[in-house]
Amino acid sequence: xTTTIGILGAGRVxxxxxxxxxxxxxxxxxxxxxxxxxxxxxxxxxxxxxxxxQRTTARTTDxxxxxxxxxxxxxxxxxxxxxxxxxxxxxxxxxxxxxxxGLPGDLLYPGSSLAEKLQTxxxxxxxxxxxxxxxxxxxxxxxTLTTPPTAYLSGNDEQAKKTVTExxxxxxxxxAQIEDLGDITTARATEAMVLLVPHILRRNGFTPxxxxxxx
Length: 215
Description:
Blueprint lengths: L3 E5 L3 H12 L3 E6 L2 H7 L7 E5 H7 L2 E4 L6 H6 L2 H4 L3 E4 L4 E3 L5 E4 L6 H8 L4 E4 L6 H4 L11 E5 L2 H13 L7 E5 L4 H6 L4 H8 L11
Parallel strand pairs: 1-2, 1-4, 2-3, 4-5, 5-8, 9-10
Antiparallel strand pairs: 6-7, 8-9
């Protein structure tokens, strides 16, 4: 599958995904919040990666990935309702309050999830939640962990989840590592897993890990 992919967010998560997807043959547009953010990440990236503002990125690509901070993503993406209409939106963010040390704290939407909020705000967009239960470097290199990780999927549209599954294979994920949990409400379970993350990071630093299903 080759398609045009827009990534909202030009930080570590967005540029990491852009690099791997471009290497897989996709044409990627990376949408930073400011021209300065785009310029800061442009050096050394593939010629398949172009840069634009986030509204242009959402409007001109076939499939869009939300890699913006989860605590401000809802307002930002709701403002792109027209541009995202009819498209698949992959949400890889977690919405939390920040703890005193800057790591994830309490959930911003207890009893719900960012993915559910996005689906409600964007009724004409097919939202799929995935890749939010791991450090960003694992998203594009699952084979580097000694234990096979899991990429969970949540979404209301079966065809959209099939498309996202194909995209995950381009990122290096094997079919047995992809777990479809069901509709978009199941995203509240995987988003709640972020509560484990700060405790692991405080003890081990940013050593790659994922919260995975063992059978």
